Automatic annotation (TrEMBL), chain B:
Function: As part of the MCIA complex, involved in the assembly of the mitochondrial complex I.
BP term (GO), one: mitochondrial respiratory chain complex I assembly
Main location: mitochondrion
Organism listed in the record: Catharus ustulatus
Record GO terms (molecular function): unfolded protein binding
Compartments (UniProt record): Mitochondrion
Full protein name: Complex I intermediate-associated protein 30, mitochondrial
Domain of life: Eukaryota
Keyword Signal among record annotations: no
Family membership: Belongs to the CIA30 family.
Domain NADH:ubiquinone oxidoreductase intermediate-associated protein: 102-275
Keywords: Chaperone, Mitochondrion
This protein's record includes keyword Mitochondrion: yes
Quaternary structure annotation from Swiss-Prot or TrEMBL: Part of the mitochondrial complex I assembly/MCIA complex that comprises at least the core subunits TMEM126B, NDUFAF1, ECSIT and ACAD9 and complement subunits such as COA1 and TMEM186. Interacts with ECSIT. Interacts with ACAD9. At early stages of complex I assembly, it is found in intermediate subcomplexes that contain different subunits including NDUFB6, NDUFA6, NDUFA9, NDUFS3, NDUFS7, ND1, ND2 and ND3. Interacts with TMEM70 and TMEM242.
C-alpha cells in the first residue's frame, strides 16, 4: 500500500529520515530484466490487456494457440505431469522436472494471476496483492510453454514434493546444484509481486525432495530472489497498519521451514531479510528469535549423534551398539558380515549380526548358574535420528529371594566388621535416595543388532558368543521373542477427545506371547 | 480498511501454527472448562453428544454420596493441614532432599495421567499406556504419524503426549503442588532414543497467561539400561501456544498444576518410553538460577 499522502505529514511521523533511503541504498533495486521475446516488460503502468482475463479463467485451453512454438517442449512434460499429478501448479511442475530429468531448467513463463494471491491459507482477499500490471509478458509475446490448469493450485502446495520421484540417491551434489540452477534461471524472469511469492512457496515445497532443506545457502539463494526495497514500509504509520501481509507471510513461511529443519540463519540471511522487509518487520523479528534460541537448543543432547544421517545397515548397527552399551570398554564385534556388502539390499542374502559385550557382562554371565535359563529377548526399538534399529538382549531373570546370597554372618570375622552401616551424624538433609521400590530386573549379558530377527540368526549369535562364554553351552537358552514388537493390538484404546472428562490412561489388556514375562517369570527353573 | 487488514492478518498468521488450537482443545477437558471449546468440530473430534450441564444428575442418593466423599476428603485435608505443610512433618518438609511425585506400580497410578495425541486435530498418531513387566513401570508407546489433517489450515501434525491430571481437593477445588524446596526434576526412564519434551503448567493468576507452559527437552539414549535424567528447573523456558516467548523468567515452583511429556520429533514410526518414577531432587551442586537471559530481546534491529 503506497500511501503517498503520508509524505505530506510532518516528517517525524513517518519514521526517521534515513530509514527508507538507507534501505534502498543498502540494496539497489535490481534492474528489471527483459523477457525472452524482448517485450517491454519494464513498464509498470499499463494494466494487462483484457485478453488476460479470459485466459486466466480457463487456463489450459486458452493459451494453446499461443503456445504453438513450444508445443514440442511443452507436450512431453505435460503428458507426464498431467497424468501423474495433474493438479500441481506450473512452478511445482518445474521443480518436478528438475528432479526427474536433472537438466538445467528451460526458462518458462507461467501465469501468476491465480498463483500469486491465493495461497493455501484460504479465505484471504486479494486486495493487497497487486494484479499483474507489471507482468504482461505472458500474454502477448513470451512463450507460455505449458499452460496447465491452475484450478487446483490451492491444495497443490503440500502434495507436490510427496508426489514427485525422490532425487536420485547416488547423486548428492545434483540436488543442490539443480536447485541453484533453477533459482538462477528464475532470477531472470520478470519480477512481479505475486510471482515471487509463488516461486518461494514452490521452492520451499520442493526443497525436501531435492535434499537442500538443511542448507542455509539454499534459503539465502531463495531470499535473493525477493525484491529489495518495494516491500519496506515507509515510516511507523505504515508499519503499524500491517504492511505487505502476504509478502511478510511468505518470508515467515520460509523462516518457519528453516526452523522446522533446525537450520540456523546466519548473518547473510538476516541482511537479506533486512533489505527485503525492512527493520522491525515480522520476518526480521523472527530471525532475531531464531538466532537467539536455535543455537541454544542445538547442543543440548547429552548423547549426540553424528550430524550426518545414518543409513540403516552395518554402520548404523555399530553406532547403535556403541550408544546402548553403558560401558566404553564394551567390544562390538561383527559376527557375520552382510551379503551383499553395500547398497540398498545390504544383507538380503545373509543378514549381518553385530554383537556387543563388555567385560562386566562377561563376568556376570560367568557367574550365572548354568541350571537356570538365560533368555534372548526382543526385538526392542532403538532410534538413531530417523533410522530404526531392532536389538535383542541376552539376559537372565533376577534371582528369587530364597536363592539370593544371605547377608554375611557377622560372626565370620571377629576382628573387623564385614559390613558397616555408619550413621555419621547424617540426617534427612543428607539423604539423597528416593523412597521407592527399585525395579528388579535381571542382569544383561550381551546385546545384538541382527539384520533379521529370526531364530536362526539369533542362534548363530548365541553360538558365536559361546566362544567367549562357555557357560552358554550348558545353560538352556530360551527365546522370548514378540514377533509383533511392542505394538499393541489395534484396539479400543484410542485416546478420546475433549468433551467431558477424559478417561484415565487406558490399560491395554495383557497380550499373550508378548514379552513373555508374567507367566514365565520366577518359575525357579 | 485497517481493521479488515488486521483481521485478515491475524487469521492468516495463526494459520501456520496449529498448536494454539490444540492447546485450547487439550486443556478444556483437563480443567473442566467448557468455555474454551469452540463450536467448530475438528475432523478428528467426536461430536458433542451432551452438553456438560445436561450431565448433571439430581438424584438425592448420589448427592448424599458425593457429599460424603467430599466431606471425608475435607476431613483428611484438615488433618494434613494440622500435621504440617503438605501433610508431612515440618522437619521432613524442610529437610528432605528428594521426593517421589509419581511412581507406576498399579493401575491407579496410571489413572492419574491422561494421554492424548493429534487425533484431536484430525491426525493419525496413536498412543497407549500400560503397566510394564511385573507392574514395575509404565510403558507409554504408540506410533507417530506426521501426516497433517486435511482441513485447509493445519500444516504440521504428529505429536503424542501424556499429562498428569491436575490435583483436585475436596469440593473440586484446585490443589497445587509446591515444589519450591527443590531445584531439579528427576526422571528414571528407559526410552528408545527419541527426544521428548517435558512441560510444566503452572496455573497463572491472569487468564491471559493461560497458555503459558514451561518446557525443556528430555533426550533418551535407548538401550536396555535405565536412565536417570535430571533436569534442573532453571533450564525450563517459557513458551506459549508452542512459541518460545521473548520475555523469559524462571519458573515459579510454588503453584505447579500439571507435568507432561510430549513427543513430536517429526519422525514417523513407533515410539516407546518406560517410566519408573518421577521425583524431585534438591541438587546442591546446581547453583544456576536461570539459564536464559532475561533482558529485553526486541531491540531495534
Amino acid at each position: 500500500m503506497r500511501l503517498s499522502w503520508v509524505r505530506a505529514l510532518p516528517r517525524g511521523l513517518w519514521g526517521s529520515p534515513g530509514v527508507p533511503e538507507l534501505c534502498r541504498s543498502l540494496c539497489q533495486r535490481p534492474a528489471r530484466a527483459p523477457t525472452e521475446r524482448g517485450d517491454t516488460a519494464g513498464t509498470p503502468k499499463p494494466r494487462g490487456p483484457q485478453r488476460r482475463h479470459p485466459t486466466e479463467g480457463d487456463t489450459a485451453r486458452g493459451d494453446t494457440p499461443r503456445g504453438d512454438g513450444d508445443t514440442a517442449r511443452g507436450d512431453t512434460p505435460r503428458g507426464d505431469g498431467d497424468t501423474a499429478r495433474g493438479a500441481a501448479s506450473a512452478w511445482h511442475r518445474h521443480f518436478q522436472e528438475i528432479r526427474d530429468k536433472e537438466r538445467g531448467p528451460e526458462p518458462r513463463d507461467h501465469r501468476r494471476g491465480h498463483l500469486g494471491g491465493d495461497t493455501s491459507w484460504g479465505g484471504t482477499s486479494r486486495g493487497d496483492t497487486f494484479r499483474d500490471d507489471t507482468f504482461k509478458g505472458d500474454t502477448s509475446s513470451s512463450p507460455p510453454p505449458h499452460h496447465r490448469s491452475h484450478q487446483h493450485h490451492d491444495d497443490s502446495h503440500q502434495q507436490d514434493p510427496r508426489d514427485g520421484d525422490p532425487s536420485e540417491p547416488g547423486s548428492p551434489r545434483r540436488g543442490p546444484a539443480a536447485f541453484e540452477a533453477a533459482l538462477r534461471a528464475m532470477e531472470r524472469w520478470p519480477p512481479g509481486r505475486g510471482g515471487r511469492l509463488a516461486l518461494v512457496e514452490a521452492a520451499l515445497a520442493a526443497m525436501e525432495a531435492l535434499g537442500v532443506e538443511r542448507s542455509v545457502a539454499a534459503y539465502n539463494a531463495l531470499l535473493r530472489l525477493l525484491p529489495r526495497g518495494p516491500w519496506v514500509p515507509r515510516g511507523p504509520v505504515q508499519r503499524l497498519l500491517f504492511p505487505f501481509p502476504r509478502q511478510q507471510e511468505c518470508g515467515l513461511q520460509l523462516l518457519e521451514q528453516m526452523e522446522r529443519y533446525g537450520v540456523i540463519p546466519d548473518a547473510e540471511t538476516r541482511f537479506l531479510l533486512l533489505g527485503v522487509f525492512g527493520p522491525r518487520s515480522r520476518p526480521l523479528r523472527k530471525v532475531q528469535r531464531m538466532m537467539f534460541w536455535l543455537p541454544r537448543f542445538r547442543h543440548l543432547d547429552p548423547h549426540p549423534l553424528p550430524p550426518q544421517p545414518t543409513r540403516p545397515g552395518l554402520a548404523a548397527a555399530r553406532l547403535g551398539l556403541h550408544r546402548m552399551a553403558g560401558d566404553p570398554g564394551a567390544t562390538v564385534t561383527v559376527i557375520q558380515p552382510p551379503v551383499p556388502d553395500t547398497g540398498d539390499d545390504e544383507g538380503s542374502v545373509q543378514p549381518y549380526i553385530v554383537s556387543s559385550q563388555s567385560p562386566e557382562q562377561r563376568e556376570l554371565l560367568a557367574q550365572h548358574d548354568p541350571a537356570r535359563a538365560v533368555f534372548v529377548e526382543g526385538p526392542f526399538p532403538l532410534w538413531l535420528r530417523g533410522t530404526l534399529l531392532k536389538y535383542f538382549v541376552l539376559r537372565g531373570d533376577p534371582l528369587p529371594p530364597h536363592l539370593r546370597d544371605p547377608p554375611p554372618d557377622p560372626e565370620r570375622s571377629f576382628y573387623f566388621p564385614l559390613e558397616l552401616q555408619l550413621e555419621l551424624e547424617r540426617g534427612p538433609w543428607d539423604d539423597e535416595e528416593f523412597d521407592v521400590d527399585e525395579v528388579e530386573e535381571g542382569p544383561v549379558f550381551a546385546l545384538c543388532v541382527p539384520g533379521a530377527g529370526d531364530r536362526r540368526t539369533l542362534a548363530r549369535w548365541i553360538s558365536a558368543l559361546q566362544e567367549q562364554n562357555p557357560i552358554l553351552g550348558r545353560a538352556p537358552v530360551v527365546f522370548r521373542l514378540n514377533e509383533g514388537g511392542a505394538d499393541p493390538r489395534e484396539g479400543p484404546q484410542t485416546p478420546r477427545l475433549g468433551t467431558g472428562t477424559p478417561p484415565g490412561a487406558g490399560l491395554e489388556p495383557p497380550e499373550e506371547g508378548e514379552r513373555g514375562g508374567e507367566p514365565r517369570k520366577n518359575n525357579g527353573e | 480498511m485497517a481493521l479488515a487488514v488486521m483481521l485478515l492478518n491475524s487469521a492468516s498468521f495463526h494459520a501456520g501454527c496449529c498448536r494454539h488450537k490444540v492447546l485450547l482443545s487439550l486443556r478444556a477437558p483437563l480443567l473442566g472448562d467448557s468455555k474454551l471449546c469452540s463450536s467448530y468440530r475438528r475432523p478428528g473430534a467426536e461430536p458433542a453428544k451432551k452438553l456438560s450441564w445436561q450431565n448433571a444428575d439430581f438424584s438425592f442418593k448420589k448427592g448424599i454420596d458425593h457429599l460424603k466423599t467430599q466431606l471425608s476428603l475435607l476431613k483428611k485435608e484438615t488433618q494434613d493441614y494440622l500435621k504440617g505443610p503438605s501433610g508431612h512433618q515440618i522437619s521432613q518438609h524442610l529437610l528432605e532432599q528428594t521426593k517421589v511425585l509419581w511412581q507406576f506400580r498399579s493401575q491407579e497410578d496410571l489413572n492419574k495421567w491422561v494421554i492424548s495425541s493429534d487425533v484431536e486435530i484430525g491426525g493419525k498418531s496413536k498412543v497407549y499406556i500400560k503397566l510394564g513387566r511385573n507392574n514395575q513401570a509404565a510403558l507409554l508407546y504408540g506410533t507417530l504419524n506426521t501426516e497433517a489433517p486435511r482441513d485447509g489450515e493445519t500444516k504440521y501434525s504428529g505429536y503424542c503426549s501424556m499429562r498428569s491430571r491436575p490435583a483436585v481437593g475436596s469440593f473440586n477445588r484446585k490443589k497445587y503442588y509446591d515444589w519450591s524446596n527443590f531445584n531439579t526434576l528427576y526422571l528414571r526412564v528407559r526410552g528408545d532414543g527419541r527426544p521428548w519434551m517435558v512441560n510444566i503448567y503452572t496455573d497463572p493468576y491472569f487468564s491471559h497467561q493461560k497458555d503459558d507452559l514451561y518446557s525443556y527437552f528430555m533426550f533418551t539414549r535407548g538401550g536396555p539400561y535405565w536412565e536417570e535424567i535430571k533436569i534442573p528447573f532453571s533450564k525450563f523456558f517459557l513458551s506459549s501456544r508452542g512459541r518460545v516467548q521473548d520475555n523469559q523468567h524462571p519458573i515459579w515452583l510454588d503453584k505447579v498444576r500439571t507435568l507432561g511429556f510430549t513427543i513430536g520429533d517429526k519422525i514417523d514410526g513407533p515410539f516407546q518410553l518406560e517410566i519408573d518414577f518421577l521425583g524431585l531432587l534438591n541438587d546442591r551442586a546446581h547453583r544456576e538460577e536461570f539459564a536464559y537471559e532475561a533482558y529485553d530481546k526486541n531491540t531495534p534491529v
